[in-house]
Amino acid sequence: MPRLKAITTGSVPSFLDVVLNLDEGDESSSLASQDTWLAQMKAKGTGRLVMYGDDTWLKLFPGTFDRADGTTSFFVSDFTEVDHNVTRNIPAELVKDDWNTMILHYLGLDHIGHKGGPRSPHMVPKQQEMDSIVRHIYKAMEAQDHLKSTLFVVCGDHGMNDAGNHGASSPGETSPALLFISPKLKGLQKSQEAPLPEAEDFQFYSTVEQSDLAPTLAALLGLPIPKNNLGALIPEFLPIWPKKTNQAYLLHQNARQIQTVISAASGTKTFDSALPIASCASPSSDYEELACEWQGPSNILMSARVGDDMDPQWALPVTRWLRKAQELMSGMASNYDMTRLILGQVAALLAVILSLGVATKTISSLTPLLLISIAYSIMMFASSYVEEEQHFWYLATSTWFGYLVFRGFKRYDTSVPRHFLLTAVPVLSAVRLSRSWNQTGQKFAGTPDIVKIFLEPNPHFLWLLVGLTYVWTHRQLVYSFHGRIPVPVNYPAMTGLVLAAFTFKAAFTLEDAPELVVPFVKSSLLDFTRGASLIARARAVFVGLCLATAAAMGFIIWEVATRKQRETPAPRRKKGISEKAEAITTIQNLYTILALTQSRTTNVPLFLVFNLIYWFLSTEIDADTTPLSTAELGVSSLLLQYASFFAMGGSNAISSVDLSNAYNGVSDFNVVLVGMLTYVSNWAGPVWWVVGTVVLMGKIWRRDQQQRLRLHEVKPQGEADENLNVVEVKEQGQSATGLFKTYVAVTTLFTAFSVAAVMAACTILRTHLFVWTVFSPKYLYCVAWSLGQHLVVNVGLGGLLFWLGSL
């Protein structure tokens, strides 16, 4: 949507358009009242306007098109249906002579890029399909009389990076192709070599700004230039007008129109009269400098318009001035409300101070958390570090777990390598494996990683790991319901739920990336459930999860109501584990099914890696000496939440938002459902770690209860145990609420630091070259992390689960 605004108005869209672009139901960004070349074509009254394809056009231009068939652009798993819906209308439209503008917005290439990247096996066949459509339209233009004066423009609204995403500032994302086709353009006699050698920066014949399309179309079609345009007429088209006076007139109109925009933005009438020589000797502003530089191009245009003999390159100074004016206005900072920015910054700093005060009273040692928070805050002031933030979390997580492993060596005889082989190697390998799963960020996006090197070329191995993940989850579910549901009901119910989730994942992958589905999966499972739609499959999984979750919650309520399980543990359960504790573990396992459903197939095995790290933290809690404290668990959870987000392919670019699973089980756009599914898809790992942390906190609470009970039975009242460290003594005196407060203090302190740092960076660097492509997207992610992940998930969901487990 922001790029379509640039193409049709010639202006630079606001950053708010990026946010509104994610709301498919938004109508506030309509261009119905703005001056565009599309509105000029409608006002021209020489024919109807028709549109087929992405329905963003219908929302931007309500009531503009006389014939239209729009389709949603957000279901990115569809490579063919939307495009076929566009193509089927072309033959009938080409034989009609009642239209003057036809928009054909194809989506297949965009969707293939999002799902498989530029090297997807679907890419070349789709490009060949687009070639055939271009060929078909051009042949019709040559053959039919009513199309001989038609201008055919083929362009992309954006490109993609090596990972198939867009929204940042890499050359691949900001270098879409632009092609003007018409039999009348043969008169330009341009002889250009084709194809050209590959270029990493995608700079080939010539480069223009996307906004240049608006004034160029206005000139070629005989329309007024849109009044908010910042584009410059593409100079290669000037020879179409053989008279130099006409060329000068077009350039002068373009320049005067941009001058009007500059005068409105600067609040001065800089270009209305010649500036004094003294002012041009030392211009006081960029606007004044631009006005001084206009004197030369202005004189050239006046000479050209009266027919004076001119140098063949006479237009070059004018186009250079247009480019400079365009750069000035395009890079101009917004009119920031500094009062509100300062108030927001003060509020953020106040939050840091308050959270620091609470954390000081709650946490015994703040050193690790402060080091992480301060280092992260400093990093937010460098664009390169923001783009490659994942490396900070990978390094911090590896260092922290290395420290925990090293501390564990002290508990054992270091001459025996048992601890090293059975604990240190698995957990450190798991941390290293997760960071190599997906290459993300900007610099290394699309480079080889585990998914590209091992899983995609070996789909049999991929499905072996996927199958193991679902089998492990099935085992955990059956075990957590054991003793509360009769075995004849437990096994079939849990097996049915897991099979429904697995078959949905297989069917979705078959539609999404069929090259990853092996024959065994297709023949054995999908053929067995043939005929079920993806929507029905997803709904079956969601309904099963809702029923199982309701059952788990029911057991918690029943246990609280009866109070019988407090004194009499259920048979076949581990000593000291209550019904409520296992019910919370059940919810954790049920969420795992949801996370697997909303994750990309290649990311499913990552949850096996997460389980290995989870096991390590569980063993640290049970250690006889220096066990893991609540604050240390909070630091571990914080690191793993961020590390898992990046390990699953997330980044600080808008382009990395994964919409592939946003419509699971949804037949039509619903902003609430799609928003929730989108969040779970992109934060599946972090939410999993929050739920897992709640279960581990319950384990710490039960451990401390047992220790207090042993101390009460063995020691006389008032006598202390000299072997207990300060953390153990402090936490043994904490209630369940106190434990959760410690965890919230850890996450809140870091969140306050991060919000304050990001806000300060965006404020101080508001004139930075990358403020819209790096810092502003980071601010949006900061909002998602602080409001969504911290307040809703960490505090809200985590608090609810911990409260249920401690009733």
Share of β-strand residues: under 5%
Unreliable spans: 570-578, 720-733
Number of helices: 33
Helix content: 55-70%
Strand count: 5
Radius of gyration: 31 Å
Spatially, the strands of the biggest sheet line up as: 2-1-3
Task: Tell me, rounded to a whole number, the average pLDDT.
Answer: 84
Span of the ends, CA to CA: 50 Å
Summarize the biggest pleated sheet. 3 strands, parallel
- Shape by Cα distribution: globular
User: Structural class of the secondary structure composition?
Assistant: mainly alpha
Number of domains: 3
Function: Ethanolamine phosphate transferase involved in glycosylphosphatidylinositol-anchor biosynthesis. Transfers ethanolamine phosphate to the GPI second mannose.
Protein name: GPI ethanolamine phosphate transferase 2
Transmembrane segments: 341-359, 366-386, 392-409, 540-558, 683-701, 743-766, 778-804
Main location: endoplasmic reticulum
